[in-house]
């Protein structure tokens, strides 16, 4: 298999071993947990990949790093046992996790390439990504599928590349970091995570009956302009990542007032590009939604 570097093509072969399900190391509660009304929004029903790159570590010479990761993952799933379950969809498309203990998908692989040979290919948008995370049939779905898909690729230099596909309805960036921190602690020999995971998603459930205290304009239905995407065309919408290098931000900053933040600049750039591409009229109403971490916002 091959990937393209910015200067010249890099040709390398990836050999994958049999995919397996890694189960929790000990028995876990068999129960069904509801996801919150924030978690199961349509806009979050996708998988998001993370890539971690590790250089050769001489102190690990006597250990098999893949075996260490696999065993530590199994121990981590005892504490994060909902991640070893399967997402189900109930009445009204309500999502829940059935804590079955079926495990997460784990794939071991090896590549005949060194870390240095990748060059800039290991920076976003990762042209070699398809070699580093196996496209398991149905892995793009979230219902009745493993909640984690993991590939660990050994490199010829002794380094490792770890790629994980996370189900966004189950965890956001902060939750993913906490899971990874616990996994790392278990790999270093810990028996308990330094921070115990807490579910508590019921506090983010809508009240029944509803008690609306403010207008939520983000959920109001707005008639789209005649030349925008129609509702029936939404099946063709793709999730796409755009990566801004420091040089890109610097170039955009030259076009705006000095007091603009990086967030202001990127948001304005997307707003401008989208409205220009859709050729909207000045009187057309359009909206842009931005996901915000609410953990530190006590007033929300």
Automatic annotation (TrEMBL):
Check the record and name the Pfam families matching this protein.
Answer: Transferase
Highest taxon of the lineage: Eukaryota
GO molecular function annotations of the record = transferase activity
Print the keywords alphabetically. Answer: Transferase
Matching entries from InterPro entries are given as: CAT-like_dom_sf (IPR023213), Plant_acyltransferase (IPR050898)
The record's annotation in PANTHER family points to:
ACYL TRANSFERASE 4, OS05G0315700 PROTEIN
The family note in this entry says: Belongs to the plant acyltransferase family.
Kindly provide the name given to this protein in its UniProt entry. Benzyl alcohol O-benzoyltransferase
Its source organism is Pisum sativum (Garden pea)
